[in-house]
Amino acid sequence: MLRLQKLTKTYKTGDQALKAIDLEVPKGQVLALIGPSGAGKSTMIRCINRLVEPTSGAVILENTDLTKLGPGALRRARREMGMIFQEYALVERLTVMENVLSGRLGYVGFWRSFLRRYPQADVDEAFRLLDRVGLLHMADKRADELSGGQRQRVGICRALIQNPKLLLVDEPTASLDPKTSRQIMRLITELCRERGLAAIINIHDVALAQMFVPRIVGLRFGEIVFDGVPAALTAEKLTEIYGEEDWEATIEAVEDDEEVEAAQ
User: Fold this and answer.
1) pLDDT reading at 34 higher than 90
2) Which of 128, 227, 238, 242 is 20 to 30 A away from residue 208, measured at CA?
């Protein structure tokens, strides 16, 4: 469904953030990107939707090479890629409902969006999504009245109302407490299963990735150094990705958390 072929990003400083990355993500698969800061995780996500322009290589979504698209075709292609941001990227003065409906901007045209005259079908879908994430009762609240977890749920709804084929998720739990982080990761993975969505989740929290995501890709210095199931992420592999640490203790903690999660 998504293929990265020799994807490379070199900045003007000469720093190489991505080094000829080859990666395939099948339809419906949820994948977690892990690795230390500066490994290239956010750059990879942003190269896929060309918020950052790749230096070379190809990004093929289904049968379309996104790196070859002009501005108009790229805008249309971005409709099929929902983005969930670490800092939520909501318009603070707008209501929850208005922020969710802003995900339809690529479809309704400038004047209808400017006048906030969305088709009834879009409004109905926004209500359904808010109900699914437990925020229906907050549809008319301003975004600046929400907690971090609530804001992230609004961001999820905004991405899903695009009806995308691929979700790109950048550090969805970085600003959240542990309990809310679990709730958000559980929600994202459940929604992907329900909708048959592929997703790439950039996440620092290895334990959360292991608990909720079936495939993990580890980056180090812009290269893939691990690609496998959570159970294969051994202490030796974590050392290869992050460097020396007491990873055995981390693995034991993850196993304990998984037991608690399964019992809930």
Assistant:
1) yes
2) 128
Residue burial 101-127, b: 16+ Cβ < 10 Å; e: rest: bbbbbebbeeeebeeeebeeebeebbe
Query: Distance of alpha carbon 56 from its chain centroid, rounded?
Result: 23
Both tokens assigned to 14:
């000469």
State the Cα–Cα distance between residues 133 and 48, nearest whole angstrom.
27
Residue 96 has pLDDT above 80, yes or no: yes
Determine contact, residues 12/216, Cβ cutoff 8 Å. no
What is the number of other CB atoms lying within 10 angstroms of the CB of residue 5?
16
pTM confidence score? 0.89
Greatest Cα pair distance, the chain, in angstroms, is 57
pLDDT of residue 158 exceeding 90: yes
Question: Taking a C-beta distance cutoff of 8 angstroms, is the pair 47, 81 a contact?
Answer: no
Contact present, 241 and 36 (Cβ < 8 Å): yes
**Closest to 205 (Cα-Cα) out of 159, 257, 164, 162:** 257
- Please report the beta strands in the chain, taking only residues with DSSP state E, as ranges in sequence order: 2-10, 16-25, 30-34, 56-61, 64-65, 81-84, 166-170, 198-202, 215-220, 223-228
Chain-centroid distance, C-alpha 108: 24
Neighbours of 86 (CB within 10 A): 16
Joined together, the tokens standing for residue 115 give 């006048």
Q: What are phi and psi of 53, to 5 degrees?
A: -80, 125
| Residue 17 CB neighbour total at 10 angstroms | 23
In contact, 118 and 161? CB cutoff 8 Å: no
136: Cβ contacts below 8 Å, ≥ 6 apart: 127, 130
Distance between start and end Cα atoms, the chain: 33
Quick one: tokens of 220? 């180090």
CA gap 77, 83 in Å, rounded:
13
Both structure tokens of 111:
């004047």
> Could you give phi then psi for residue 50, rounded to 5 degrees?
60, 30
